[in-house]
Design the sequence.
């Protein structure tokens, strides 16, 4: 694991209990209501289709609310994350919901070393995951290695155009951060996480990388996947641009003014081709 990834892992270890305790992740509702699904998974239900009986893995699963949601839709789920504390919270949630999910601790690039290669019908990557990875090509290689021939990747992610916008400007959209993947990370230093909490983080420095939409598509094509669907959305599950957005009834955030100006997220699906 690189120095950057170790730095990020420490941050995610510290965030795990804060996220599980926050109202944003709805842990109590998952436990109380066996039919409850995460807002992220609910958003993509029309595109996800019937996944009952599929062998599936959720990469970068964090505390497992999306993983649990996919299991409730009938998939036989594994979850993988590099944060031991996130996985501890995920296991507790699955146990309290009486749901069998196999959680594995690993760097995502080594997923095919700790999980059986070529054994999955579905690889799922949820929103907010890819920015923590320095190389989109290595991620695509991992996805291809895990999928069976004919298996499907399902990805929902923040749009790289949004991630290039500086959120500190609350009256305009200014592109001030990288759109394309760069070797050097964008370095952030903040004692706050993205849920409401009174606890300040002690591991404040994190490293992120943006990946252009063409870079994501090209990497998947290089590793033998065929793009089967790509939809850009004018909404995203968090308030990505404070002061310029409002939350809708589906729990997504959109621009208040001229929503057509900027894509905020996208859903991509790809199929592994037979050799």
Sequence:
């Amino acid at each position: 694991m690189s120095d950057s990834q170790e730095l990020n892992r420490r941050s995610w270890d510290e965030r795990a209990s804060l996220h599980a305790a926050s109202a944003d992740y709805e842990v109590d509702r998952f436990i109380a209501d066996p039919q409850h699904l995460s807002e992220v998974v609910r958003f993509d239900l029309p595109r996800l289709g019937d996944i009952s009986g599929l062998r599936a893995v959720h990469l970068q699963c964090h505390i497992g609310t999306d993983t649990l949601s996919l299991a409730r839709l009938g998939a036989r789920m594994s979850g993988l994350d590099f944060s031991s504390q996130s996985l501890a919270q995920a296991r507790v949630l699955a146990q309290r919901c009486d749901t069998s999910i196999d959680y594995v601790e690993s760097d995502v690039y080594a997923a095919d070393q700790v999980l059986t290669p070529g054994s999955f019908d579905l690889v799922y990557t949820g929103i907010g995951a890819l920015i923590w990875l320095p190389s989109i090509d290595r991620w695509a290689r991992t996805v291809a290695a895990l999928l069976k021939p004919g298996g499907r990747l399902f990805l929902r992610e923040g749009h790289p155009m949004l991630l290039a916008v500086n959120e500190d400007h609350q009256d305009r959209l200014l592109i001030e951060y990288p759109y394309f993947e760069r070797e050097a990370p964008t370095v952030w230093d903040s004692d706050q996480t993205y849920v409401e909490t009174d606890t300040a983080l002690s591991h404040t420095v994190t490293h992120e990388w943006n990946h252009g939409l063409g870079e994501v598509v090209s990497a998947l094509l290089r590793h033998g996947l065929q793009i089967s669907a790509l939809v850009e959305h004018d909404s995203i599950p968090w308030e990505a641009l404070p002061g310029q957005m409002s939350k809708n009834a589906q729990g997504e955030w959109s621009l208040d003014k001229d929503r057509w100006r900027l894509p905020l997220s996208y859903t991509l699906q790809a199929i592994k081709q037979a050799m």
Remarks:
- The longest helix spans residues 3-21.
